Amino acid sequence: MPTYKSLTLLLTIGLTTVGAATADVEKSDQKQATMADIKLTTIKKMYQQDIDDQGMSNPVVLQQYANADLQVAMQLEQAYFDKNQMSCNIDYDVLWNSQDPDYTQDKKFSITEQGFVLVSLAQGSDIYYELSCDGNNKNSTDCQVADVILDQDGKTLRKHLLENCR
Asked: Could you give the count of Cα atoms lying within 13 Å of 137 in the half-sphere of its Cβ?
């Protein structure tokens, strides 16, 4: 009978461990879902502000939502323009992938497997945003745009500005 009790004890411990591991996975999944919602909300707010202002915000909406690293790169672009009276930036509105944005077009927002926010525009363009999120306290998390992926080769806005605006 001692073997039976030992086996029962091992099974109980094993099942308890599996139950705890399952709970940890569920917490992790819930945290990822919450973070995805926060990222999506941030980008949706950014687009709504740009729509409301018809692209006339000053500073531009993207800069208002950018983290410190992206802001530095965007400030390099402004300094380059002030000095040379020409732009080193890309020649279109990044949010809309267009020189003449249609603010009324439909948009779909989603999260990629890599954690980027994907904005699919009705015109056929996909824009990928990398966000950095920081939990200031238990009840609040702030996300900012860390970068915008410009093409399938992985070229990013921040990298473009840092390379071309010096």
From this structure: 2
